[in-house]
Amino acid sequence: MKSICTNRKAYHDYHIEETFEAGIALTGTEVKSLREGKANLKESYARIKDGELFLVNAHISPYTCGNIYNHEPKRTRKLLMHKREIDRLLGKVKERGFTLVPLSMYFNKRNKAKMELALAKGKTLYDKRESIKKKDEKRLAEREARLR
């Protein structure tokens, strides 16, 4: 698998409960731009509308060699999943207050563009501080272990 981009901020802002893989419906210039690694998932999210799954606010830069056929960088893109998976996600998003957050975008073994989506709950400010504190403690422990 060739990774295109990841959303590292998602792990800081959300508690990740479950992950899913979804295909992405793209145009030709978007795929060429992704092969160059020009994508950004910051502040993007997934939304279910009329039984279909859409990726909102993800930025894929315009292809440098594309002329009048270039794409809109922040357009809404359709995500491809089975109907029963979408229905299951819809139930969890409506009931329990979960959010669909994209974690990473990559090309699989068959060179198809895929996205890893997470069912996540937002962290509060004290949760974020606590996770930063745990990371710092872990880093210090590893450093001490290396020095011994």
Automatic annotation (TrEMBL):
Query: What are the subcellular locations of this protein?
Result: Cytoplasm
Pfam families recorded for this chain? SmpB
**Source organism per UniProt:** Syntrophorhabdus aromaticivorans
Q: Which NCBIfam families match?
A: PRK05422.1 (NF003843), smpB (TIGR00086)
The biological process GO terms on file are: trans-translation; trans-translation-dependent protein tagging
Q: What is this protein called?
A: SsrA-binding protein
Keyword hit for Repeat: no
Domain of life from the UniProt record? Bacteria
InterPro entries, per the entry: SmpB (IPR023620), SsrA-bd_prot (IPR000037), SsrA-bd_prot_CS (IPR020081)
This protein's UniProt keywords: Cytoplasm, RNA-binding
For this protein, the record's Gene3D superfamilies field holds:
2.40.280.10
Q: Name one GO cellular component term.
A: cytosol
Please report which protein family the annotation says this sequence is part of. Answer: Belongs to the SmpB family.
Q: Which gene encodes it?
A: smpB
| Described purpose of this protein according to its UniProt entry | Required for rescue of stalled ribosomes mediated by trans-translation. Binds to transfer-messenger RNA (tmRNA), required for stable association of tmRNA with ribosomes. tmRNA and SmpB together mimic tRNA shape, replacing the anticodon stem-loop with SmpB. tmRNA is encoded by the ssrA gene; the 2 termini fold to resemble tRNA(Ala) and it encodes a 'tag peptide', a short internal open reading frame. During trans-translation Ala-aminoacylated tmRNA acts like a tRNA, entering the A-site of stalled ribosomes, displacing the stalled mRNA.
Please name the GO terms that the record assigns under molecular function: RNA binding
